[in-house]
Amino acid sequence: MREIEAFYDEHAQYEWERLERHRMEFAVTMRALEDYLPPAPAKILDVGGGPGRYAIALAQLGYYVTLFDLSQGCLTLAKQKAKQAGVKIEGFEHGDARDLSRFANGRFDAVLLMGPLYHLLTEEDRRQALREARRVLRSGGLIFAAFITRNAVIRWAAKEEPDWIIRHPERLKELLSSGALRKAPGEPGFTSAYFVHPNEIKPLMESEGFETLDLIACEGVVSMIEEKINELTGDAFAAWVELNYNLRKDQSVHGAAEHLLYVGRKRT
């Protein structure tokens, strides 16, 4: 995990700004959180929440939020951003999503796992993170788990580096067969990561003790073609958010979105 930690330590500010560049992802995700979360002041554990975009937004709504992240650099920035926003975050905890042992069983009403699952390359590691999230949830508590889709890599290559599939045929083969992309030491760009096929998500989550409530295409139909949408304000932007939220369950959209958000309830 050192590769992941070092990347986010170096790019904490970039990660904070990412959701300004991808406003639809943030808006649709917040809409889902507001629709499904229990009323404030419920207790939320934001696992892998980075510099705290969602943690701060939820604290502003009156929730008790604990931010837990692998990157100390992101946590340091989150403290600064929370102070600037004038909100209280209940705790800033440094650690690995596979080990939440510092938290008691059933302590939280909801867990956000919106980052770790695409940084854990093996299925067993992903399952371990899910088991830990489930353990710290109260009976009937909610999980919000984010995934990056497999086609997102291919669509990124088509837009940014169309010769990528020719320069890296073995990586393409591995991506299509296993979902994993492993980064060479010192290679620039994003970290090693796991990219999910949309059909994998519900079976994985349900086998780990969650009841499916929703599966959401966060960028909707504007994934990677959002530049003009990002220029909109007021009613125009709100209309696009409404459209994409209404299309969130459409499986034909799931394969073309960059991020999918699973919403589930802990089964007893």
Task: Give a structural overview.
Helices cover 47% and strands 20% of the residues. With 268 residues, the chain is α/β, with parallel strands linked by helices. The chain has helices at 2-10, 12-21, 23-36, 53-60, 72-85, 123-136, 150-160, 164-167, 169-178, 198-207, 227-230, 234-246, 251-254; strands spanning 43-47, 64-69, 91-94, 108-113, 137-148, 180-181, 193-194, 210-217, 259-266. It starts with a helix and ends with a strand. It is globular and about 50 Å long. Helix 3 crosses helix 12. The protein is built from 13 helices and nine strands. The strands form two sheets. It has a seven-stranded mixed beta sheet with strand order 3-2-1-4-5-9-8, with helices on both faces.
Helix tally? 13
- Provide the low-confidence segments as ranges: none
Give the C-alpha Rg: 18 Å
What sequence of helices (H) and strands (E) makes up the elements?
HHHEHEHEEHEHHHEEHEHHHE
Could you tell me the number of beta strands? 9
Range of helix content: 40-55%
Strand content: 15-25%
Distance between the termini: 32 Å
Largest sheet: 7 strands, mixed
Strand order of the largest sheet: 3-2-1-4-5-9-8
Task: Write a brief caption for the model.
47% of the residues lie in helices and 20% in strands. It is α/β, with parallel strands linked by helices.
What descriptive keywords fit this protein?
47% helix; 20% strand; seven-stranded mixed β-sheet; 13 helices; alpha/beta; 268 residues; two-stranded antiparallel sheet; globular
Topology:
Elements: H1 2-10, H2 12-21, H3 23-36, E1 43-47, H4 53-60, E2 64-69, H5 72-85, E3 91-94, E4 108-113, H6 123-136, E5 137-148, H7 150-160, H8 164-167, H9 169-178, E6 180-181, E7 193-194, H10 198-207, E8 210-217, H11 227-230, H12 234-246, H13 251-254, E9 259-266
Helix pairs in contact: 3-12
